[in-house]
């Protein structure tokens, strides 16, 4: 028995490359072009939802003329049962919470592979509420670190190496794996091929590593990691 897909679908994305990517993903799921409405800014999206009810929406937050959160609020107000999946480059806890509070059903990062975005969309269609694993881990990490901070108030005078170690603890298993491959001299493309992920995913992880180790270069990330005993 063929699955009935909810239509119409609104896709709010200003980058042509990402639009093409999402079109292909939706085609692979089973959607036809006449079921899809692509817009590239908030104004056009608002006009679209005024003209017709939207059952499923894929929404970027960082739009040229505003924040996609405004659209989410309007969609949710018009139809609380509308399925809304945020697909954004914004990976902060605040952006997630504000989108969910506005009425989003799920949240996934643009850096994810096509297969991962397909899984998120299918999850939404099945009644799920997918949250990107990276953001979920960040939230859990912050909660964990807050608990540690409360339990160790007397450690305020800890030395710099202990401060570095707290940064090390924030690195995920995948980030440590990629950091090791960086230290071996592999390029982003080579790392992606070895780990069977996209180059964009690798680049995103490396950016997170830079931030957590307070560095801006691959060589500095490696040297800092070796100083800390990570490598």
Overview features:
231 residues, Rossmann fold, five-stranded parallel β-sheet, 11 helices, two-stranded antiparallel ribbon, 2 domains, Arc Repressor Mutant, subunit A
Could you walk me through the main structural features you see in this protein, from its secondary elements to its overall organization?
It is a single chain. With 231 residues, the protein is α/β, with parallel strands linked by helices. The protein has two domains: 126 residues, Rossmann fold; 70 residues, Winged helix-like DNA-binding domain superfamily/Winged helix DNA-binding domain (Arc Repressor Mutant, subunit A, Orthogonal Bundle), CATH 1.10.10. Helix content is 57%, strand content 11%. It contains eleven helices and seven strands. α9 crosses α10.
Chart the SSEs and their pairings.
Elements: E1 9-12, H1 16-29, E2 36-39, H2 42-51, E3 56-59, E4 62-63, E5 66-67, H3 68-78, E6 83-88, H4 93-102, E7 106-109, H5 114-125, H6 133-151, H7 160-170, H8 173-183, H9 188-195, H10 199-213, H11 218-228
Parallel strand pairs: 1-2, 1-3, 3-6, 6-7
Antiparallel strand pairs: 4-5
Helix pairs in contact: 1-5, 2-3, 8-10, 8-11, 9-10, 10-11
């Amino acid at each position: 028995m063929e699955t009935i897909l909810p239509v119409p679908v609104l896709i709010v994305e200003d980058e042509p490359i990402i639009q093409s990517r999402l079109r292909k993903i939706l085609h692979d799921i089973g959607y036809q072009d006449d079921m899809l409405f692509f817009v590239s800014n908030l104004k056009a999206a608002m006009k679209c939802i005024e003209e017709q009810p939207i059952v499923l929406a894929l929404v970027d937050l960082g739009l040229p003329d505003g924040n996609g959160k405004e659209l989410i609020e309007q969609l949710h107000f018009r139809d609380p049962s509308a399925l809304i999946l945020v697909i954004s480059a914004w990976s902060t806890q605040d952006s997630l919470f504000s989108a969910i509070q506005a009425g989003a059903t799920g949240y996934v990062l643009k850096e994810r592979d096509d297969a991962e975005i397909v899984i998120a969309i299918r999850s939404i269609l099945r009644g799920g509420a997918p949250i990107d694993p990276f953001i979920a881990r960040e939230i859990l990490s912050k909660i964990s670190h807050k608990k540690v901070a409360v339990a160790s108030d007397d450690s305020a005078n800890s030395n710099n190496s202990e401060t570095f170690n707290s940064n090390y603890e924030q690195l995920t298993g995948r980030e440590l794996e990629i950091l090791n491959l960086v230290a071996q001299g592999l390029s982003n493309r080579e790392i992606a091929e070895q780990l069977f992920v996209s180059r964009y995913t690798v680049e995103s992880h490396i950016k997170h590593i830079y931030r957590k180790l307070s560095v801006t270069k691959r060589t500095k990330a490696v040297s800092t990691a070796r100083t800390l005993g990570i490598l």
